[in-house]
Amino acid sequence: MEKILITGHKIPDTDSICSAISYTELKHAQGVENAVACRLGKVSRETQYALDHFGAETPLFLDNVNPDADGTKKKVILVDHNERFQTPDGIENAKILEVIDHHKFNLITDEPLKIVADTVGCTSTIVYRLYKQAGITPSKRAAGLMMSAIISDTLLFKSPTCTPEDVEAVKELSKLAGEENYEEYGMKLLIEGTTLSDKTPDEIITMDMKEFDMNGKTVAIAQVNTVDTKGTLSMQADLEKAMNDRINAKGYDLFVLIITDIVKAGSYVLATGKSPELVEKGFKVTLENNTAWLEGVVSRKKQVVPFMLEASK
Amino acid sequence: MEKILITGHKIPDTDSICSAISYTELKHAQGVENAVACRLGKVSRETQYALDHFGAETPLFLDNVNPDADGTKKKVILVDHNERFQTPDGIENAKILEVIDHHKFNLITDEPLKIVADTVGCTSTIVYRLYKQAGITPSKRAAGLMMSAIISDTLLFKSPTCTPEDVEAVKELSKLAGEENYEEYGMKLLIEGTTLSDKTPDEIITMDMKEFDMNGKTVAIAQVNTVDTKGTLSMQADLEKAMNDRINAKGYDLFVLIITDIVKAGSYVLATGKSPELVEKGFKVTLENNTAWLEGVVSRKKQVVPFMLEASK
């Protein structure tokens, strides 16, 4: 039977993986048996912690969504992203059935499709809403995964992207998942996600990296959440080398690394490349030794991308 | 108080006007008192029939959504469209809060937003779904307008874009509107919309015209629904003159007029301009005297645009 591939973005974070699995379970419960949860890259340590904790399997790795040998287009549902840069290779020759997302949009399709997007902190919050609208109770596993995704995306409600619906969803899901002390679980999950000690510089800058087209400039923006920004900055020379290697390989105009202190709720920005003015103009800061402290900035989507986009006009 | 402008597309059809009014009423019922129903052009004869029948006022005419004198961005909700060509002038400097739509997508935003899109026959079907999800019963007036929009967009369920949800919505809305004989009302509405006798050629080709970017070619596609295709085709020379005048004024590569016979459920296509191959390749027909009969084609969105887009690649 022809499959429906449900996938999050490249370099998947916990939301991309957990929303793909949970939405696939919802589809199955609605009788869409050919839905398959997929991923476009390696599962992070944080995500693996959540998968292990709630007994979920790693989604199917998807290399591309090119048509079958007989020309049949793949059917795809995109969760937690919609932009071409972040979708599977070959998407231009696939049929996008649905998009479930909470990011800014850059989507061009040839045909009508189903989209559920909203300005909430996490795609899994929307997936949980869809469960409720369908009158279907998520499994313990799906509830735990959706809860994990929301905690991850909102940094346990500290991110400015967090909405009352995200908080309420975690409270309800924690009961369904049998994990009522969600704060304790959430801190463990976030700490697991922020351990950088076992990572190479190239791994650090690509753990959660996304590419953006900013009015003709190609900008890579990576983000790491940590409780030890000083330890991370002590690797600055090695990080910059890894960033410049990526710039040379991919032709980026700018590589930005956002090192977010989840306790202080602010970020160091580290920028290399030929367009640092997008950072300086965007945040009204002066980079010293390629870095600056951005007070209160913790959300790439809400507090980084829009300001750099504006600066690029 | 700052307004939230809710508007359908340029050259508004019944769905654009009725969805704007009905969704504004829903917002009011949800406590969003600053929502204002708007329109971007003249109300059609068909739409006026529905407005009069259900005692609704014509929405506010909107010339543009440029920022206020102090630079404050206008807040806009787009219904029944999402593409730049079809939105109010100045949209690039406005804040799009939401999109409610059932068309293909070509949407680029700087920030996340709420989107509810689906592959149903009419935007008002989605608006009615949102009423139900919110647990709010539409007013008699809003119910009548949403019912009218669905009948108009689906040609009383004859269009291939029509889904079971559209049919069910009309049945439920007809009761709420006190218009249980929706078939009789619907035929009156469609006949009102298809009277071309009082129209000039330029009015006929712009009644329901949309512009599309097809891989670098700018194509205008107009559609008229009629019960008298022969009478319309007897004006061919005058229609072609009006189409060529528009081509010269706007620089279109192609102007296509779809003359849909709502009884026979097919369309004559009339095409002028320098790229007629988009029609010939798209529908696998040979134009004779600039026209061809397209058996079974009644939906611009589903049966015209995708095939011409494919032919333009």
Automatic annotation (TrEMBL), chains A, B:
GO MF: inorganic diphosphate phosphatase activity; metal ion binding
EC number of the protein: 3.6.1.1
SUPFAM superfamilies named among the record's database cross-references: DHH phosphoesterases
UniProt cofactor(s): Mn(2+)
Residue ranges occupied by any DHHA2 domain in the UniProt entry: 186-312
Keyword annotations of the record: Hydrolase, Manganese, Metal-binding
Pfam families: DHH, DHHA2
Catalytic activity: diphosphate + H2O = 2 phosphate + H(+)
GO cellular component: cytoplasm
Superkingdom of source: Bacteria
Protein name: inorganic diphosphatase
Origin species: Fusobacterium hominis
Lineage, uppermost ranks: Bacteria, Fusobacteriati, Fusobacteriota, Fusobacteriia, Fusobacteriales
